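Section 4.2 – Deliverable D4.2 (structural model, holo form)

The reporting period included a commitment to supply a predicted holo structure for the target in complex with adenosine-5'-diphosphate. Inputs used:
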Amino acid sequence: MGPAVSAGSVALEAVTKRYGSEAVVAGVSLAIPEGEFFTLLGPSGSGKTTTLSMLAGFVVPDEGRVVMGGRDMTRVPPRGRGLGMVFQNYAIFPHLNVAENVAFPLTVRGAPKPEVTARVAEALAMVKLTGFEARYARQLSGGQQQRVALARAIVAHPKVVLMDEPLGALDKNLRYHMQVEIKEIQRRLGMTVIYVTHDQEEALTMSDRIAIMDRGRIAQLGPPREVYEKPDDSFVAAFLGEANLLRARRDGEVVRGPGGAVLATSAGTPPGGEALLFVRPEKVSVAAGLAEVLPNHLPGRVLHASFLGNIVRYAVEAGDGATVLCDAANGAGAVLHQPGDAVTLSWRAEDSRLLAG
Ligand code: ADP
Ligand code: MG
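Output (structure tokens):
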């Protein structure tokens, strides 16, 4: 016997899907262990839904394999894959009430009535819709409909649940509430969740690991903190929140930034010549006048100060036309710098990276 393969593990092996001559998913490989919350994150059109559709069985890849629980599922139709699904356009059935909607995955396969009743009650309790059994879609808010779809996806206790932008239509508060709910249910049932979103904050808060997609390929894959703090390229850096990407040059052993300043950086060492120096706005401190607070420092002049309540975001002109964004916490005794003020920007070498230009 070979090594045991967990039923909830999922893999894509060099999967490609073309429409016409264009590969909208181009040689994607992924290995997702059972119980992981895995997110595909990327801009619109980057191939997230197509990738998820190949996992679901709605789309058959032109090349490569889809493997679930160690079994080749590449050509198995959706109903043979035993997955739960919440797709943006996979709405709840208008002619069925809430209980019938949630029961659907069980009734289609002829589950015994007592089991159906018990499972539906359990799933509705998990999404906090007990008491809504007899309602129809038109009698529910958008958030409640989304929760019905979620209950339907988990009612059969699938090992793997696929979700494509399930919270896309909800307002911010409800979205946050549902994020917490989904995580809680996932933990309780030990499900593998493969989640698609274009919302970077949602991806960062919910995921064990994130794959950032760019034009049909995985640009980077790792835990939230790693992809946020150690982007491999400027696309990932700019897609995940705000990033300063300053023109820099490697000159032998030293890196020179705006105004020729010598800057120390951590890993990320593209070949010599033109490069981009990456540092997040919240890692840059701003001090009045000439102050050498941290090893890397640049003199600058405040262009804008935007008061955002808990933080103040500064745009600082720092030589050679470079604008550096810095977020300063509006903590106790915080000094507000004004447009026109001379300041010194500084950051730690380990908070910056040199990326290919
Ligand atoms: P995402 O979910 O990241 O927004 P999609 O996977 O939906 O991206 O689409 C990726 C690319 O593939 C887009 O350019 C889209 O227009 C194209 N595409 C998706 N489905 C089809 C299809 N059935 N026929 C032709 N092109 C498609
Ligand atoms: Mg999509």
